[in-house]
Amino acid sequence: MSGFEFAADPDRVIHEPARLKIMSVLSVAESADFTYLMRETELTRGNLSVQLTRLEEAGYIAIEKAFVGKTPRTTARMTPGGKKAFATYRSYLERLLDATG
């Protein structure tokens, strides 16, 4: 396995499948509302809410809550730190795949 360092573990916050789905969606969108994220990630309302909180606590996403008329709207966007962490995670996966392919 030439050149791949297995000592460098993946970011455990991003590595969890539900959070990886969220970060993947947000990596190609400036921001996304809760309903869109739920549809794209196929997560339940409760699971999405928990995973968004974990990503926010890690500083990887920012959550904005507002009202559109009388309807609450939650929007998420990736922070600069989240963009950097996701790029690092992608690089880790690319190196892993290159080493095994």
Polypeptide structure, described:
Helix content is 56%, strand content 18%. It is of the alpha+beta class. It has one domain: Orthogonal Bundle (Arc Repressor Mutant, subunit A). The protein has a three-stranded antiparallel beta sheet. It starts with 11 loop residues before the first helix and ends with a helix.
What are the defining features of this structure?
3 strands; 101 residues; Arc Repressor Mutant, subunit A; 18% strand; three-stranded antiparallel β-sheet; alpha+beta
Basic shape: elongated
Q: What is the CA–CA distance across the termini?
A: 9 Å
- How do the strands of the widest beta sheet line up side by side? 1-3-2
Structural class: alpha+beta
Estimated share of beta-strand residues: 15-25%
Quick take:
With 101 residues, the chain is an alpha+beta fold. Helices cover 56% and strands 18% of the residues.
Would you spell out the secondary-structure blueprint of this structure?
Layout: H1 12-15, H2 17-27, E1 32-33, H3 34-41, H4 45-57, E2 61-68, E3 71-78, H5 80-100
Antiparallel strand pairs: 1-3, 2-3
